[in-house]
Structures are given as C-alpha cells and as structure tokens.
Amino acid sequence: MDIVGACRAFVSVSERGSFTLGAAAARIPQPVASRRIAALEQHLGARLFDRSTRRATLTPFGRDMLPSAKRLVRLAEAMEYDAERAKRTPLRLAIPDTCTTRDLALLDAEARKQGVYLDFHAAPPAERAELLRSQQVGAAITEVPADEGRWSVPLGLAATAEPSAATVYIDTLRTGRGGRAQRRRRIWIQPEDDVPHIRDRVMRTRDSVGLQPAQVAVAPALTSAAAEVYGSTDLLLASPAQARELGLHWRPIGELRLVRSFDVAATDGDEAERLRTTLHDPIAHCLGAAG
C-alpha cells in the first residue's frame, strides 16, 4: 500500500473533521481518501475514525497514531523537496571561452528541457583539463586529437581583407628577397588552439615553408589576437563561426587541414554520456561544429 499517501489523507481528514473537506485539501477525490484511510486502518489493525457520527471523529487509536502520521508526512515532503533541489543542482561545466553568450544561453535552455542544469565556467584547454582533474568542475568539454573527438570544428585563416583566392597558403607569407623592407605578416594562434596537435603542426609548416619564427605567435587571449588582426594584414587562426562573429574573411589553409576536436569528460562517466547524447546538437552549435 501507499502508506505515505494514506497518511496524508488521514492527517488531512483529521485536521478538517470531514472526509469531503479533507479529500479536497489533499487534492484527491473523496472515495480515494476513504479507500486509502480504510487500507491504512487494515494495515495498522484498528479503526482511526469513528464512523458512527456525521463528522470524521478520531478514535482513541486514531489520536495516538496522528502524531506519527504527521511526522511521516513531513518527512516525505522534506524528501520530495530535497529530491527536487538535488535535481536542480547545477552541473559545473568547463567550456571553451570561444562560445558566445547567445549560444551558451541556447545550450542552457535546451539542457533545462532535458532536466539538466548547467553552470558554465569558461577556460582555455589546459585549464579545463586541470579543473576537471581537481574536481572543481563536474564535467568539461575537452580538446582531443582529431580522430578521437565527438565534435569537429574546421580551422582556417581569417583576415580583415577578403583574400582573392579560395585557399590561403602559409607559403605566401614569406617576405621577398629584394626590394624595400616590408612588415612580415603573422599568423596569430588563440589560446583555444594552443594545443600540440594544432599549434605544433602550424609551427612545423611555418618552418618547412621558410617563414621567420616570429611569424607564428600564440596570443594571450582571443581579444588581443583579433586586435592585432584588425590593425594590420595579419591573420587569425580561427573557425568559420568565429570569423563571422568578428567580421573577418575566412579561408581554409592550403598546406594542411586543421580541426578543433572536442569530447566531454566528467567525474561521472554516465554524466559525460548523457551530455554527449541528450545535448549533442546544442553543444555542436555552441562549439561551431559541423553537426
């Protein structure tokens, strides 16, 4: 039997002295309240109400049982409240700081529909991994090698001026051997791409085509990297979505194919899988991934 439901009906009827009013207060039909109380009486082995009167009058046994029933109802209500609060406890999620406020809001809204409450913490890749390792967050969107990711984001070079070609070759950034000196164009790598499987490949390509070491630089922040590009002919290593947001012209790189590759890691493996499956598409949109 539903002993909590029966005790709720018992307490409600006893407080109002009426099966009809007690049932209404408990938000159940009067016949249901009567059946629940009868089942409780059978379970306890004695009558709770004196049914010889028009009012719902407690028997001596009912008066003795009422305090215990009230305690059980209060405990059940406290448990329900705690359960609802626990379900609403946010999952602290470390995310790339390249995600826009709008995309994060859409991700958060979709997560709430799925019963998941998120608390975002933006950080670069190495910091996200450390936050998860130290359990300062419950989950993190991590950068992984290209063949291990759940989401992939193509990278290319973005500039203020629209390139005449459909592809930008790093080789074209070499300065001429003769003539007057000219400023060397640089490629700026933002913190999100300061990971070995992206940064090192760009550096190796730089060396193989004969660029100067300083022509590829890691910026301390995306803002400073974009500022360098706005004020010069420099190029920003970026995703197509970032280029659009920054008002830059994006092209793929001729010498190599680069992608950001992401997965979800969590202190609880089931939590990671839930994020991968139930929130796959909104996370993809937030990251600027192609599906």
Automatic annotation (TrEMBL):
All copies of domain HTH lysR-type, residue ranges? 1-59
Gene3D superfamilies of this UniProt entry? Answer: Winged helix-like DNA-binding domain superfamily/Winged helix DNA-binding domain
Q: Does the UniProt entry include the keyword Transcription?
A: yes
Query: Can you tell me which residues the record assigns to a coiled coil?
Result: none
Q: Does the keyword Membrane apply?
A: no
UniProt-listed Pfam families? HTH_1
Q: Print the keywords alphabetically.
A: DNA-binding, Transcription, Transcription regulation
Q: Say which family it is in.
A: Belongs to the LysR transcriptional regulatory family.
Name the UniProt record assigns to this protein: LysR family transcriptional regulator
Q: Which organism is it from?
A: Nocardiopsis mangrovi
Taxonomically, what lineage is the organism? Bacteria, Bacillati, Actinomycetota, Actinomycetes, Streptosporangiales
